């Protein structure tokens, strides 16, 4: 019979029901001592009958661990970050860890405050998914808790930060457009304070140079990795009278905004203008037309992060191969005749 109506069941009640001492029941639950098969079955049966719910935080604090990992994301509603967080969760849950997630909203001060709050909650490690904090701040935080950071290169005794090959993937996207006959290619930039934005812009410029295509500064327009930024960027291009047959957007959200701006001017995709994005969000295969883009395997990124974090918490080195980016060709690019 479940004991649900008389308040929380205590460890002493479980021990009494199992016919063992509280110390034996505690050591069994903490995994710090072996017990006989008969006592193990008695304790497990008592836990089931009484519906005992151990206080994991209290147990963890006694053992110097809360079995939680803090995650600093930038948005709680973004498909980009959600895929990575699912990957992290799946990688750590088998080891008994849970995630405590907070958002920094791309504000460095708020991000630092959230990391302080996570450390105050006694998390065993902190994951930082991009953001605007300085490397120095993150290195300082790593003196207090292990940190794995995605979107920047960092290395230290208790910190590891990594990036994917944004430059190479941007070059591949540009090669596709040029192979399809495009020469007047507009580029919608990402946020200026993000390393991946700079890498993608460098890939755009260097690929043009390799094909001896003179880059036109008028075709490089500001963006902010948001739909609204892509919309404003294309409105700026059209308002300036610039000629272009293709757009390379620094991420898929910018491409969505660009697509809307073209639609409102009755400019067809891809018949009049081709578009390539970057990220391969789930919704990109359902745009009209389906978006050609660079796939970031964000679930795999999260899985790598989780595995790295468990290694850092356990004080052992983990070699994790980083996922590769790949070009996904759909229907938003056409060959010029």
UniProtKB/TrEMBL annotation:
DNA-binding is among the record's keywords: yes
Pfam families documented for this protein:
LacI, Peripla_BP_3
- Which CDD domains does the entry link to? HTH_LacI
Which GO MF terms does the UniProt record name?
A: DNA binding
The cross-references to SUPFAM superfamilies, in alphabetical order and at most eight, read:
lambda repressor-like DNA-binding domains, Periplasmic binding protein-like I
Q: Which InterPro entries match?
A: HTH_LacI (IPR000843), LacI/GalR-like_sensor (IPR046335), Lambda_DNA-bd_dom_sf (IPR010982), Peripla_BP_I (IPR028082)
Name the Gene3D superfamilies for this protein: 3.40.50.2300, lambda repressor-like DNA-binding domains
Keywords of the record = DNA-binding, Transcription, Transcription regulation
Ranges for domain HTH lacI-type come to: 9-63
Query: Which PANTHER family does the record match to this protein?
Result: HTH-TYPE TRANSCRIPTIONAL REGULATOR GALS (PTHR30146:SF109), LACI-RELATED TRANSCRIPTIONAL REPRESSOR (PTHR30146)
What name does UniProt use for this protein?
A: LacI family DNA-binding transcriptional regulator
Query: Whose protein is this, by species?
Result: Massilia antarctica
